[in-house]
Amino acid sequence: MTGRRFRLVADDYGLSPGVSEGIRQLLDRGRLSGTGCMTLFPEWAESARAMRDLSPNAEIGLHLTLTDFGGLSGWGHLPHLKELITGVSRGAITADKVFPELDAQLDRFTAEFGRLPAYLDGHQHVHFLAPVRQWIIARFAHLPDAEKPWVRGGPTRKGAPAGLWPKILFIRGLATGFDRQMRAAGLPVKGPLAGFYAWQKPGLFAEAMTTLVRCLPDGAVVMCHPGLVDDALRARDVLTDSRAEELEFLAGDRFAALLDRAGATLAGRAA
């Protein structure tokens, strides 16, 4: 199959200065469609300013974050994912808690970029949770079509190793009805989502990307997590060395040759 276009988006811009620098390097080389921003860290304003004049065709999105880090809204330290899911399912974490936090993250994005994000997704896929769905619809469904961000849809198992299928099926469960609900609200949905691989094991990213590029349907969204490893990253996240591995592969000639052999191109804002 030739002529396929897919989005390759880097999660976690803003997580640390090194992660942000690595993502900017790839955007500058045209190796990414865009990136999703985490706006709740102290370095956010500096990272955003470094991005503003870079890659005008890149899609700069908001990576909604409700887990593990210090929030912006007085919530305090955000819960672990299991606690968040349990709290939502039991009615202990509701819209009145979630909306102020996501509003604060959105406000920090617009304060630096002077516009709304090109797309929305969630760190650890939290955008599939009911209060976040409500927030997305409340904040964006009323906008003119030209101003609406697209939202990242549910995942596919296609191209993923069988050992990760249980994780993907769990995320698909969280995403039940999401694509349909967003479209019913007039919001564009892009997907399916791919990019799952066993990042804990070194040396697997190139193989995973090779499989994905060969089998993905037209219009798919592939997440990745490249970046330079710095002290801030090591203090904030367990996903470290694999980011450097992803950055090296995506920046190199092997990735460009892979796209060429597969007849695939990266979609983005200009698409």
From TrEMBL:
<dbReference type="InterPro" id="IPR011330">
    <property type="entry name" value="Glyco_hydro/deAcase_b/a-brl"/>
</dbReference>
<dbReference type="InterPro" id="IPR006879">
    <property type="entry name" value="YdjC-like"/>
</dbReference>
<protein>
    <submittedName>
        <fullName>ChbG/HpnK family deacetylase</fullName>
    </submittedName>
</protein>
<keyword id="KW-0460">Magnesium</keyword>
<keyword id="KW-0479">Metal-binding</keyword>
<keyword id="KW-0119">Carbohydrate metabolism</keyword>
<dbReference type="Pfam" id="PF04794">
    <property type="entry name" value="YdjC"/>
</dbReference>
<keyword id="KW-0378">Hydrolase</keyword>
